[in-house]
């Protein structure tokens, strides 16, 4: 059995991941909003990252239901899913479309 202080530390570290991730996403979101151009950003890559975040969220919830523990992982996964979804939405919103012929 893992000592409780190690579990608490692991949970604390897991909760810091969304904070660090948000700090990394904010400049990208700001740049997208300022430039209003996402032409150089891969929509397919962000769609795949969004799907991966959905899978991670599913895994986190299943682990919580099975073990009765793991809120830190659920919170971290939910934040990750939110962040990639916001990024994908911004990429799609600021995608330049060619003029109609």
Explain what the structure shows.
By secondary structure, the chain is mainly α. The protein has one domain: Monooxygenase, CATH 1.20.1280.290. Helices cover 79% and strands 0% of the residues.
Q: What's this model, at a glance?
A:
The chain has helices at 4-35, 43-67, 71-93. The chain is an all-alpha fold and 101 residues long.
Q: Which runs of at least 5 residues are low in confidence (pLDDT < 50)?
A: none
Reading the helices and strands in chain order gives HHH
Corresponding CATH architecture: Up-down Bundle
Provide the number of structural domains: 1
Beta-strand portion reads under 5%
Average pLDDT number:
93
Number of helices: 3
Percent of residues in helices comes to over 70%
Radius of gyration equals 17 Å
Largest sheet: none
The number of strands is 0
Question: Which structural class fits the helix and strand makeup?
Answer: mainly alpha
> What's the N-to-C terminus distance?
67 Å
